[in-house]
Amino acid sequence: MNNFCLWGSFLLIFSQISHAGLITSAADPALTGGTTITFNDLALANYGSVTSNGVTFSNADIARTPAIQGISITDRYSTISAPYSSNVLKYSTSVFPSSESSDVPHALLRFDFSSPVKSFGLDLISSSYPISLTAFNAAGDLLETFSPLGGSAHNVYRGISSYEDIAYAILGNYRGYDYIVIDNLTFSASAVPVPAALPLLISGLAFLGCSRYRRTA
What we know:
Layout: H1 2-17, E1 21-23, E2 35-37, E3 45-47, E4 49-52, E5 55-59, E6 70-76, E7 83-92, E8 108-126, E9 131-136, E10 142-146, E11 156-173, E12 180-188, H2 197-216
Antiparallel strand pairs: 1-11, 2-12, 3-6, 4-5, 5-8, 6-7, 7-12, 8-11, 8-12, 9-10, 9-11
């Protein structure tokens, strides 16, 4: 029964972090009350880097991957496409450090949060190749990642939540060179929510187990 007490304590701690991980919907509770960047406050132009609402978007590896168009705030995917309903951020690269079929990330868009956040998510409007999304803490330690999946990524939602502070993230595409188009980046500094009943239930079970152990000891 002593092990039961320890196990109950472990579950209580685990319940606080079990919701850290991947986000696939803008309605995820981890993003509730967060700040959303729509890019509508920025002029339509090309940028070396650009900042909105305390988040800076830049090329993740300038030395290895200088950008041919870099970062641009635009209202359309290309000069011949129909306009979007609002501004988006488009990122592209021109240098080919590896073959298109390799699993080395090619285009690398980095976004730094001026203050640490616990969760973020964004609309991935267009990428013709698999994408990965990785979050890091201030020391550069990897916290969580979306592994690249086969196929293109059009109009999908991707995000990460973490019980540790997220300082920055990197979005990259694999096996090819193409634009990455994103919109509506939402981030929250609040702790990842935990269902209120779960810690109470687990702590209650642990208490009952410990009490029974004391009575039978």
